[in-house]
Write a structure and sequence with these properties.
The protein is built from eight helices and twelve strands. Helices cover 39% and strands 21% of the residues. The structure holds magnesium ion (MG).
């Protein structure tokens, strides 16, 4: 029997990985992923982390299973080739080019935006290689207010959006996010949304927690309410268990839903 989940996309922090747990990725989830891979499925870690940071965390997690793809900074794609990850060059180059062009257009406004935030909030505002405005604020309430201001600004700039994860936020191009990156990987693998499962816990996961990209949606118990709501609205699975345990229950639920015997995963 063909395995119904052909592509599995998991967010990293809070969904797959909990650094206060030992091991940080539960063995039951590692075993399910290994079983899916042995049946030809591919696994992508879809994260807001940058590549070096993610690779370090993966090494420290001592996983017994390796992702086939990485999506980093919510937008760049890397594919495993032996023991290395090589970039999906066409996608990543267009992604970088479109971001450069977009960010050039907003350069005249940057100091005004930074000053607005600094005058009102005790927040860290800085630029990095991925966004000319990055935010780390003191609380979710502060982030709510600052993101509202940034979103208002985005309405005046075509293709500009804000990506938020907890108290962090940055600018991004609307066409590049966890959802479109997952869609690109699925396109390369010739897998339709009916063969894709996506699991996430926070704001930046919402673009991939969509039936446009994944028929099977999972949120762990620790997911924010907006994520749980979106997952429920699309007949997804919201687990009563946290992070990796919740993802494992979601994978099992949808395999059983599709009458796929768990014993077939070995
Ligand atoms: Mg997360």
């Amino acid at each position: 029997m063909d395995v119904p989940i052909k592509l599995l996309s998991t967010d990293f922090d809070g969904t797959l990985y909990a650094d206060f747990e030992n091991p940080p990725v539960p063995l039951c989830l590692q075993s399910l992923i290994r079983g899916l891979q042995s049946r030809g499925a591919k696994w992508v870690i879809n994260t807001g982390r940058a590549l070096p940071d993610l690779l370090l965390a993966l090494e420290q997690a001592e996983l017994g299973v390796e992702p086939d793809y990485l999506v980093v900074v919510e937008r760049e794609i890397y594919r495993r080739h032996g023991d290395k990850y090589v970039e999906a060059r066409a996608w990543n180059e267009s992604c970088r080019r479109e971001h450069t062009q977009l960010f050039e257009r907003i350069t005249p406004d940057l100091s005004r935006i930074q000053q607005w935030i600094r005058a009102r909030f005790d927040a860290r505002v800085y630029a990095d290689a991925y966004s000319p405005v990055c935010l780390q604020s003191r609380s979710n309430e502060d982030t709510d207010a600052i993101v509202e201001f940034l979103e208002e600004y985005c309405r005046s700039v075509t293709n500009l959006t804000v990506v938020r994860n907890d108290v962090y936020a940055r600018f991004s191009h609307v066409n590049y996010n966890k959802g479109s990156a997952l869609g690109e990987i699925a396109r390369q693998l010739r897998i339709g949304p009916d063969g894709v499962l996506a699991a996430g816990d926070h704001w930046n996961d919402l673009p991939m927690l969509s039936q446009e990209f994944a028929r099977w949606l999972v949120a762990p118990d620790n997911a924010i309410e907006a994520v749980k709501k979106r997952v429920r609205q699309q007949q997804g699975y919201v687990s009563g268990q946290p992070h990796g345990y919740g993802v494992a229950r979601g994978v099992e639920f949808f395999l059983e839903f599709n009458h796929y015997p768990l014993s077939d995963l070995g």
